[in-house]
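Hey, can you fold this one?
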Amino acid sequence: MKKTFFWYDYETSGTDPAMDWPLQFAGVRTDENLNIIEDPIDIYCKLPEDHLPHPAATVITKITPEQANSKGFIEPKFAGIIHKHMSEEHTCTVGYNNLRFDDEVTRHMFFRNFYDPYKREYANGNSKWDLIDLVRATAVLRPDDIEWPLHQQGDLAGCKSFKLEDLVKANGFANANAHNALADVYATIDLAKLLYNKKRKLFDYFLNLRDKGYANNLLQKYDKLVHVSSKYGSLRQYCSVIHPLGPHPQYKNEVIILDLTKDPKPIFELSATELATIIFTKKNELPEGTPELGIRTIKLNQCPFIATTKILSEADNHRLQLDFSQIEQNLQQINNNKQELYNKIKQIYESPAKRITRDVEQSLYTGGFLGWEDAKKIAEIPLTSSEKLAKQTITFKDNRLPELLFRYLARNYPNDLLDKDKKKWHEYRKIRLSSNLTEHKILGFNDFKTLWQEQWQKSANNTAEQQLLTELKDYAEKLEKELIYTTSVDGV
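Sure. Predicted structure:
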């Protein structure tokens, strides 16, 4: 089969890919030359009755609960359609900032609907990619022949904007319906074609970096590399020169790197504990005068944009304010005591703070991989009727799976539940939505009302937004009344 790109985008009920809900999905398949070769996919997903959308998300997506429920599939069918298209042989799934968000939405959705969260990313010649770092790299390294919109206000005023809607508008592409999944997919393809036609060499180079072996080879071969990443911020044009220090002690797909524009002296002087405190504390919470360490990691399986320093011209060095004499001095300091430095930094990552999983749906990464026996059993769940699943008992080794299966049935096939499970579902929803479990990242009624009021004030001069918010509030109030004033099963 020929290799294809499958361009995709989600609209969701919030910003947490584990706990918020997919509302709309769109996908368009192209050949390697970016010609569309299939009809688009444009589907919606019903909201479960234990979930409240964030008011700000409703304003952005313009999808109300009523619209999602009238247009949408239940999530198992929604997930199944997406899984089928993403799993087609020799497919490279790609979007705009998808590896940091949309890809996580996909993984968590597959997890709670009993599809393998990872296999479609690598099996049968498949891969994944993300356009956003190619856009950043083009802007900083090869900016000519493309129009770069600027932020007009706020802290980023005067800096280049990498918002999809700004980029396509500046370069003459229509996207009148931004934040509609299908419109954003077409906009992403238009932007990709622009880069493909005008920056083909850079396009092809970055496409190779979706192969983690290719990226790892660069990190092993060179002692300094150019790295383009959002982590460096707009004032540094998202670019720096880094030194690959060594593999992460716990995660095989990560490499520890040092920012060579930063003085390494504090790393030698501070203890591993002091370094860890700085690294794992938010920048705005650190005391004034705390040194910038420049310690980071690169994830090989997230298409990092790295390149040899040959990619930089003298003009680039000047524009980016890269002092290579200082960079070489910093690198020499590191190389003089590299093993000592690596051993100290490894301590930071060998025993990171444990992430406490407070809800089973957040446990994809903290709960470990499923054993082969459980994997074999869950593969049958999407193929088994809900009536049969509701009546049978499946014995799992992984203690997350019984609760996931209960929620899977209750959310999507409530009429098939036994009476005792209907009661359990009703009580679960009351606890989930009434107790405002902020540590679970679950939005309850009280916090929803606060957020709704804040958004209402922000939308004071926008009639369309207030109409959306009114419909959302009606949905939430109806759900709250149903939970408070009714029982789960008549007579129980």
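The chain has a mean pLDDT of 92. Let me know if you want another pass with a different chain boundary.
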